[in-house]
Amino acid sequence: MFSRPQPRYRNVFGVDVEGSTTRNNGAKARMRDAMYTLVTQSFVRNGITADDHDRLLDSGDGLLALLRAVDRIPKTLLLHGVVPTLSRLIDEHNTRRPADCLRLRAVLHAGEVHHDTRAPFGETLDVAFRLLDSPVTKRALRRTTAPLVLAVSDDVHNAVVRHQYDDIDPLAFTAFMTKRNATTWDSGWLHVPGEAGTSFLGPNLAGHPSVSQ
After folding, report:
1. Given Cys at both, which of 8, 38, 101, 207 links 94, Cβ 3.0 to 4.6 Å?
2. What is the pLDDT of residues 170-183, one digit of tens each?
3. Helix axes 83-96, 25-44, angle to 10 degrees
4. Helices (H), the chain
């Protein structure tokens, strides 16, 4: 089960469903169908097809897409197109199916990804999962009525968000930190489509970089 000798650069986009463990198996099945459908639709509506990403990685109550970094799928398309589209699609789904409402945490990161015959792996994915599963990210979703909260890595923020490409507003992103181990921290930025600045985070998370253990 050897890894490829060279990593491959990927834009990493992942989602996780809030409160999935409270659902029975039938509800989980509907949840998973809806999650895959909504993410796929948000890709297709922005011109992203199955040829643009590796096979979707399943985590039970979430999925991870490794998008091939080619000129036609820039990070700006994910931030300015896919994320707001997905937020609107979730809203529409929740209106049609109130008994099967979804709310998602999402993450965007990018970097080198290794592959073996089992699955992709490497530090890039570790960082993405830590940001996605951070207590700060989970708390931010609980504190808003929006259907989706996005965490982006410091790398993505520095490369794209702060430069305001495609009219992306840096003021709509709030810094936070999450603990990697006893001596190391990962930093990220939280964003809620349709909400501005730190208002969705509340007083305990706003004003300076938020910290989670």
Report:
1. 101
2. 999 999 988 777 67
3. 140
4. 25-44, 75-77, 83-96, 123-133, 135-142, 154-159
Q: Which residues contact 38 (CB under 8 A, 6 or more apart)?
A: 86, 89, 90, 93, 102
Q: Treating both helix axes as pointing N-terminal to C-terminal, what angle do 123-133 and 135-142 enclose, rounded to 10 degrees? A: 40
Q: What is the pTM of this model?
A: 0.89
**DSSP secondary structure string, 85-114?**
HHHHHHHHHHHH-GGG---EEEEEEEEEEE
- For residue 206, the one-letter residue type is A
Angstrom distance (rounded) from CA 195 to CA 172: 7
pLDDT for 123-160, tens place per residue? 999 999 999 999 999 999 999 999 999 999 999 999 99
